[in-house]
Design brief:
The protein has about 250 residues and is of the alpha/beta class. It has two domains: about 160 residues, Rossmann fold; about 60 residues, GMP Synthetase, Chain A, domain 3 (2-Layer Sandwich), CATH 3.30.300. About 45% of the residues lie in helices and about 15% in strands. It is built from eleven helices and seven strands. α2 runs parallel beside α3, α2 packs across α8 and α5 runs parallel beside α6. The chain is globular.
């Protein structure tokens, strides 16, 4: 099956929209194939501000029908406790809220941007989506991440080369309860590195320390810019570590 066929079978869909590479391309493809699609962006403490800005920009570029759903996932202690099942409970909340709003808006089919390159084995978040009968057209049609980037470039989408990004909750070690303060620290730290020109990186919490992960070809830049990084991150962390295992 290809996407044209998928949207012929499912001509009216609600999309879980993150503003990332996959869901942006899927939104573009749905519109190009004549589907009645409404995109829903879940604004939670786990999403940094730049993701919302990218979603706004993409929705404007595509002239898409979309809506921001505000959701405080930290109200669910099963998610906030941050055990191995955190993503399951988070996805339940997000797509439960999405399905509720979509139903009120007249949409019964829910889709997301999972693609054929994603490893869905033993992933709690994917289990939640399957239980909620969320469809993944990119995966069903066998479209890989590399293909999505190329197709996005051809379609003129600015997200075509956007680095992969996991939610801020992944910066906090499993078993450490998630708080707004820890999420805010991670977001501030990553904003600093982005402003300094780094790409495809993570700043993870390691006790009271920041553990910086960058691709190996950016190690030297971290050393060269260490004083700027130290000054910016020291109010939030008692020390800064460079992870020598490249991402």
């Amino acid at each position: 099956m290809d996407l044209k066929t998928f949207f012929q079978i499912n001509p009216k869909v609600a999309l879980g929209f993150s503003g990332g590479v996959d869901s942006s391309y899927l939104l573009s493809a749905a519109i190009a194939n004549g589907a009645d699609v409404k995109a829903y962006f879940a604004q939670t403490p786990f999403q940094p501000q730049f993701e919302l800005e990218d979603a706004k920009r993409m929705a404007a570029q595509l002239k898409a029908n979309w809506q921001v759903l505000e959701l405080d996932v930290l109200q669910d202690q099963q998610a906030a406790v941050n055990n191995e099942q955190r993503c399951y409970f988070c996805k339940q909340q997000i797509f439960g809220k999405l399905a509720e709003q979509a139903k009120a808006d007249g949409y019964s089919v829910i889709i997301d941007g999972t693609n054929a390159s994603d490893d869905v084995t033993d992933r709690p978040g994917m289990r939640a989506l399957q239980e909620m009968q969320v469809l993944s057209p990119l995966r069903e049609c066998g479209i890989t991440k590399a293909e999505i980037r190329q197709l996005s470039k051809e379609a003129g989408l600015f997200t075509w080369n956007k680095p992969a990004y996991a939610c801020l909750a992944t910066r906090i070690p499993t078993g450490t309860p998630i708080t707004r303060e820890l999420l805010a620290k991670a977001e501030r730290a990553e904003a600093v590195l982005f402003a300094l020109g780094f790409t495809d990186f993570r700043v993870r919490q390691l006790g009271a320390y920041a553990r910086i992960q960058v691709p190996s070809d950016q190690f030297l830049a971290v050393i060269e810019k260490r004083e700027a990084i130290r000054q910016a991150l020291s109010p939030d962390y008692c020390g800064i570590l460079l992870d020598l295992q490249s991402r």
